[in-house]
Amino acid sequence: MAILFWKGAEAFSFWKENNYVCLDLMFEDAFFGDYMSLITRRASPLETRALENSEMLRISSSNVDRLKDTSMGKLIFLISAEWSYVDKQQQQIDLLLKTAEQRYLDLLEKHPDIIRRTPQKHVASYLGITTQSLSRIRRKIGKK
Fold first, then answer.
1. What region does 125 belong to: left with phi over 0, alpha with psi -120 to 50, or beta?
2. Under a CB-based contact definition with an 8 Å cutoff, are residues 10 and 48 in contact?
3. 130 or 56, which is more confident?
4. What is the number of other CB atoms lying within 10 angstroms of the CB of residue 32?
5. C-alpha 7, offset from chain centre
6. For the domain bounded by 2-142, which CATH number is listed?
7. Domain-by-domain residue ranges, the chain?
8. What would you measure as the largest C-alpha separation in the chain, in angstroms?
9. pLDDT, position 6
10. If DSSP states are collapsed to H, E and C, what string results for 50-101?
11. CA 73 to CA 38: how far, in whole Å?
């Protein structure tokens, strides 16, 4: 299933060692889906969580297939897959090359209201750090 949403904040996460691990955060005007599940037709450990009231359009996998059979649908899914790939690869590069503080500042630049809209535990998990580390980073930045 794929989802297009116009309003709200969402998190893609999975359960690991008695905790949710956030893989991605999505905000307005986004298209998202579990591409692995959509392509392989197998269940996925990923879970989508609404972090605030949201307005979404859910598209069934059978309707996704019908859409992908059209030339416009092929183009839409190609562009979406390309951007998803670029976004995930950039996230991996950032995890390896940037400090947690740099990743947080980048996230704030893209989504200035993220702290108001997203629980700190999801932001910290997305950044690959603990909530305590995120609190320290936020205090440090607040002093600048």
1. alpha
2. yes
3. 130
4. 17
5. 14
6. 2.60.120.10
7. 2-142
8. 54
9. 64
10. ECCCCEEEEECHHHHHHHHCCHHHHHHHHHHHHHHHHHHHHHHHHHHHCCHH
11. 15
